[in-house]
Specification:
The radius of gyration is 27 Å and the shape is elongated. It has helices at residues 6-51, 67-77, 98-110, 135-154, 176-197, 217-224, 238-241, 248-255, 280-289, 306-321, and strands at residues 54-58, 81-84, 114-118, 159-162, 200-203, 232-237, 259-264, 294-297. It has 322 residues and is of the alpha/beta class. The N and C termini lie far apart (78 Å). The protein has two domains: 1-51; 54-321, TIM Barrel (Alpha-Beta Barrel). Helix 2 runs parallel beside helix 3 and helix 4 (135-154) packs parallel to helix 5. It is built from ten helices and eight strands.
Length: 322
Amino acid sequence: MSWFKPEQCQSELSLYKERCAVELREAHARVSAYHALTLNLELAIVNLESARVKFAICNEIYQDWKLEDSFAHAARLGYSGVEIAPFTLANAVTDISAAERQRIRDLAARSKIQIVGLHWLLVKPEGLYLNHTDGNIRARTARYFVELVDCCADLGGTIMVVGSPKQRNVMEGISHQQAWDWTATTFRDAVKCAENRGVTICFEPLSPAETNFVNTAAEAVEFVKPFNSPAFKIILDVKAMCSEAKPMQQIIRESWPHFAHFHANDKNLKGPGFGDVDFKPIAAALREVGYNGYVSVEVFKFEEGPEAIASKSVKYLRDSFC
């Protein structure tokens, strides 16, 4: 009978330990490589998501629906956000309590949808005007814009769209420059408040058929630039751009980086895909400039009903932006 010598056992044990150490190092290397690959994939997904536009819808489309039902419906269709018209909540944002603002924010969170911000800001209350000849009216409007900023931020929103064509028309008896200066003064305090609250006020160029004050994207950029504020930008709206002589792709390129929001609709006042406007060149131009904000559906004719408007619009946008 032969026996292992102690030195042989020690040698075999040493070899076994070395093999185990090598295998352990290789296993650690594989795990590290796996973690690195996973991290890179996660970062790639984050980068892809951040580079991709998100779709939102304006809540007045839902008319008499409960907020929670409209949020849930939009989320089910694949919208990432909802844009709120304050007049659907109350006569004035000052009537919306802190508790109610939190409740609305919670309703959106429950549906896993973001409140993008506010639009149709001056439908109610009555008597507000950006460049009225009455200084008291301008001052009241300026104060209300500060209230709007606070409400937007309290709801979790970051965008405020200023259209309000009838509340900005240049009144008889004053020059365009005077109206321009008064309007700028009206926004001064709100822009400062917006800077502090993480909100961007977006001034909207509108067609001459709607207003006689700021009709082109170039004019809107000229209006906001002197503020030199990240909280004061413009919004581009497809319906409004249809009234300009320039192609929409050119307007998008020339307006970047001064726009922070985008409204999707058609010159027939319906949703994207309900008219003749081709959104594929629009999507290409937005990608080209690097826009990664919201593309928000805003319509003015509701005869198809909220379900059809919301579903057809988002499907058309997905097809256009894919």
